[in-house]
Amino acid sequence: MTAVTDYERHAMALMALGIDPYIGTATDYITPIVESFDGIQIGHPSLVNDDVFALFPLPKAGYESDSDIISSTIAFILTKQGANGAWEESVDLTAAAIQALSPFSKVPGVANALVKAKGYLRETRALDGNWKNSFQMSWIVQALHASNESLSSWIGNGKSPMSALASTQEGDGGVESTTRTEQTRVWATAYAIPAALAKPWNDILQSFPKPVIIAASGTGGASTVAGAATSTATTTAVTSEPEENESETMSVIVETEMMTNPVQQQAVSAPPHSSIAGASTQAPAESIVKPAPLEQAQEALPETARQLAGAGTANEVPLFFIMALILALAALFGAFGYPVLSRLIRRLFR
């Protein structure tokens, strides 16, 4: 990983799965984000997507709204909003910014920025009640839920944003036309699921406290203790220093390892047809389960949400390790046991 957005998306993936982004894996994904803060903004000073997406994991990782990194990042994002209410003239990024800023609506200037941003989203709607594609619609639905906006107040040509999104779902359960590439449809469907569940990112991510670094007595060393909150940033070790992000915008979608989409400024694969970009991983098509129609998703929200929340949690990790161990032992047996058995069989049948 080289860009701060890489750390942001991985932190979001872990937090969505209930895994501590500080110590839940071999890599601390929060500290590199914090270390990229220059006192004014996060990451590359010419970009705003890395600041927008920092506001998803950091407040869930022990950083309060009045901390310097959060308050300064909010102020920087506000300065980057265009006169028409957009960020980077992007529907996706503007909708993402609405999600990121909504929890801070009481901060001076934020409420007005949210009003302008939603005005921009209304203006970009086509006469048929749709936006350009399902990617935009998914981000918009999440943004409206994040800001407690009634979808019924967004009826256009007889369609709410959710019904407009649902109209892009095909008979096989996938979103976007079956004439599109499989990769495009997988990404589009992944984007649509949290929108259909009425789940903005701030509701998806779980909270984790900052670790406390305690000096070891008599040794001069230090140890990290999880589960304790502090008022200052920790300095747990990271293996690489985050570099400048060369993309213009970034996005994230929920997968086990995670998330995003196109704009080819980043030297990574990314899903097509959305202006938010970041690094991504490929989701195998055979792992996609045919979903229920999107319009029915909200009716089944409690049970569906529990199923999603229970899938892939940290408590299931030992099972994966056991399965991996069995496969590894089988492979080793095949590699080392076969020659011995082969010689034995040849001797028996001479």
From TrEMBL:
Query: Known InterPro entries for this protein?
Result: Terpenoid_cyclase/PrenylTrfase (IPR008930)
Q: Which SUPFAM superfamilies match?
A: Terpenoid cyclases/Protein prenyltransferases
Region annotated Disordered, chain positions:
162-181
Q: List the biased-composition ranges (Polar residues).
A: 165-181
Q: Report TM segments.
A: 319-341
Keywords (A to Z) from UniProt = Membrane, Transmembrane, Transmembrane helix
By what name is this protein known? ABC-type transporter, periplasmic subunit
Species of origin? Candidatus Kaiserbacteria bacterium GW2011_GWC2_49_12
